[in-house]
Amino acid sequence: MRKVILLFLFIPGMVCAQIVCEDFESGSGSAWLQNGQGRWEIDSLFPVSGNYSLHHSYDNSEQGCDQTGIRINGLQPSMSESVWEFKIRHAYNPSSSNNWSFFLMSDSPPAEMKDGGAVSGYALGVNLSGYDDTLSLWKIVNGDVSELFSTLVNWQDDIGVDSTASLSVTRDVGGFWNVFIYDGQQDVNIGSGWDEELFYTAWTGIMYNYSSSQDRKIWLDDIVIEGYIEEDHSAPVVDTAYFTADNNLCLAFDEPLAGMPGTENFILMPGEHIPEKISMDGNYYLLEFDRALENKVYYSLRLSGICDMPGNCSDTIIDNILLAWPEWGDIVISEIMFDPDPPVSLPCCQYLELYNLSEFEFNAGELELEAGDRLYELSESLIKPGDYLIISGEDDMHDFSAYGMVTGTHAQLNLKSHELVVLRNSRDDVLHGLEYDRDWYKNSLKKDGGWSLEMIDTAYPFAGRGNWTGSDDSNGGTPGEINSVTNSNPDIDEPSLTNIYPLSASLLHLDFSESMDGGLTENVNWSVEGNSIQDISLCDPLRRAVNIELADSLKSGTIYKAELQGEIADQAGNSLVINDDRFGIPEATGHMDLIINELLFDPLPGDAEYIELYNNSDKIIDLADHFLVSYNKERGDTGRICWLSDECRCLMPGDYYVITTDRQSVIEGYGSCDRDRIFEPGYLPSMPDREGSLILFNRSLVLMDEMSYSGDMHFSMLAVTTGVSLERIDPSVQGTDSNNWRSAAGMAGYGTPGLRNSASPEEGESGGGTSISLSSRKISPDNDGFEDFLRIELSAEGEQNIITITIFDDMGYPVRRLADNMTASGCSVINWDGCDDNANILKEGIYIIYVQIIAPGRPPEVLKKVCALVYY
């Protein structure tokens, strides 16, 4: 008979305790499900106890594996101790092909109760895996069998083929298992072990594995199962739902499902997306869609016909499943400490700080840093909108724990003093980056260590150098909190095309001054004269460079133009400006094709030296193929090689190219310059203040040009030559001719980097006579936009003239000195604003412009012009 005893307990969430006894004395086995009918019977042939036992009765001409089981839906071993008892007789010595296992708990029906079946649970048996004949407790996970522990019983030696074994198994709520055998007087513990994992408990049953001649030799009787039962009347509920990719949704239910659901059981909204396929990974269901879903969207999932083991089915909607991964500009690097030694007050460790600019929460574990050629994976850590996250090496995380949220890199940080650092997401998309160097500190006292670089305005994270500076915090940095230098610093600078160069006859490379928008790679925004564009691709992670693939090959000796057809802007919306769009295939150079045209070897204190090169040929020259060296005549040796450019760069016929160690200093110090032709290659050859020599070579060591300089080459009437450049007069004359060099004119600011030399004869200049002309006969300095300034144009014969310009009133008193012993040659221009020497506006009247010219080898000259100062 089968008995069911219900004991009511006062335990929250638990309906009852249940003891199930099955002694088969009723002769009926209707509650037992067989895998294949007629394999098992309740019969009286050699019963284990009483008159009837469960007996394998199928006479099989082949080997087989038969199972039968009974449903025990709702057993809860985690709530109370569970007990399984049964008696068993196996009338044949066990082997790898003749064995049995009693499944204490199974999440699947009898057909799956076997090694390799789709079952998870626990079983007590002999040789479920292996053939050592030892009674063992086995754990089965999705059909994979592992031995939890073996007992002291060897079935063949200790039980044999004629004896019946009375076995019991207990499991406490913590997962501690015990196996007992009854010795005729008491239960004896023969094995124990621990495993806290639980699976859904739906069935218990017997598996019998036999050879063709050993069927019908197993009996089972007096089965008792004790434990707490919670009746399941609830449909399965999704307790975990998240996207693992842009087309994969992962689900976990609160209980096992009755089989694999179909794709028709799920609809993702908006969009009515039905999964293309469903797979399982452990206890998780993976829904895979046939296309990428939209980012940063809250989706809803409609489930229908999803049923659990007891048959409860779900028809519901799960809302607010967020699909979001960080994109360009969502998370930015807002602070970096690459040189912490010597420390100010912070830990002596490298770190970076991330800032979440988006409205979404992201996991730092899905990000990685690229610094130079090194990759750093980040540890798991959530970064919420508006939060900061400190990134350090794993060994240094504890040192930063007091400063805010911190996560580690799997490898220790090793940041250089100048390199490109890029932040990427798990899709390998770039989020942010910077290419920093020590000059970003803008403070020489902070360059030598202990101070971090901080972003000034996070609203413009791609503005580059102009939006970074050294920390102002007394600790040396502000990891994990708002930057000390935070301020409004809008990016209003127009981006520019800084280089254009053919990498091959059909591939063009373009560099830009800062990160550009998506229009950069759109074919419609560009054209190349005489050619068509096949493709445009990014070749810089920060969108500062592209490659343009051309349909036709470029011809040598031809100058082309890459023209902007559409609107392209930087990340702040400033439109791209192209000052020079010319390029071509570079040609081999020979002597005097590229020459030294101007140099500043004795700059003012705090300013920088510079050297200007000039393309003195009709060829397109690659500057990366040329270098300068200094030469010491006394020792007869050369100094360090200085390559003119660290990247391929075209210099067109008649163009200038200036190299310096401080571009901004040259731009600010010399108003007569072309800032787009001034570059910082990293270093210059040695140029002593008193004298020195320079030699220019190409890569094939062909001598291009050479020159020697000294302070004596400056104009003799200049009292001070510091900050005055030497300019080449005639590019066709050898640089070694000291007479072909002279001081830059004072009217030109004592230097013309990137522009035509003030010492060079003007095109079309006749070389005769000295004259003065005025833009008008009157000046009206009332700031109305009409004749507010008087333009004085002076044409002086000869070279190295000393000019003095004085303004006198009608009584003969000097009121303004416009120029005082300034050097000039050719045509010079100076403006008068109607003010006296104290910047006061003069009264109406007649004024005399008095010009004195002193030139070597000629008597002094005086020129006069009269104008009226009036107010309308």
Short description:
Strands 1, 2, 4, 5, 7, 12, 13, 14 and 16 form a nine-stranded antiparallel β-sheet that branches. A seven-stranded antiparallel β-sheet has the order 3-6-15-8-9-10-11. Helices cover 2% and strands 43% of the residues.
Describe the 3D structure.
It is a single chain. This protein has 872 residues and is mainly β. It contains three helices and 61 strands. The strands form 13 sheets. Strands 1, 2, 4, 5, 7, 12, 13, 14 and 16 form a nine-stranded antiparallel sheet that branches. It has a seven-stranded antiparallel sheet with strand order 3-6-15-8-9-10-11. Strand 36 and strand 37 form a beta hairpin. Residues 1-18 and 762-768 have low confidence and may be disordered.
Strand tally is 61
Helix content: under 10%
List unreliable stretches of 5+ residues.
1-18, 762-768
**What spatial form do the alpha-carbon principal axes imply?**
elongated
Radius of gyration: 45 Å
Mean pLDDT: 91
Largest sheet: 9 strands, antiparallel
Q: Which structural class best describes the helix and strand composition?
A: mainly beta
Q: End-to-end distance, in Å? A: 125 Å
Query: Which percent band covers the strand fraction?
Result: 35-45%
What is the number of helices?
3
